[in-house]
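Much of what follows relies on a compact textual record of a protein's fold. The record below shows the convention in full:
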Amino acid sequence: MEIKSKKYINEGFNSKAYIINDEYILLEGVNKNSYDNYKKYSESLNKLVDVKSLQIPNIIELIAPNNEFPNGAMVYKMIKGHTFTKSYIDKVDKEQLAKKLADFMNELYEVPVIFDKKIYVEQELNNAKINLELLREYLDDEKY
């Protein structure tokens, strides 16, 4: 993809986010687990394709760690709309917002989930260990 414009949006625990060419979102990994998290995110989105009240990001590319993106990256088509903030909520019809949220929750509960408690607990413990280590690294960084 030819990059004509790149605008920084924000940074989180897992990514730096950019708007590319005014129509795509680039999530650039900021830690060693970013790429694995992007893969999980992508798999989760694929399970939500039948949720009609939700626009699902159309993932264009999942980029494995390389020289340009040492922690991997993900590109998806930007979904136009409003940013869900308190100031936005104050301006909208709360009854309509509540109805849309209820419709979404009803659809979400219908998404089939395969659940193995033992595997889930092991994954959560592993994720907690990884996140604790990442938090330690982040707090030891020169930012604090």
Summary: Residues 6-83 form a domain with the Phosphorylase Kinase; domain 1 fold (CATH 3.30.200.20).
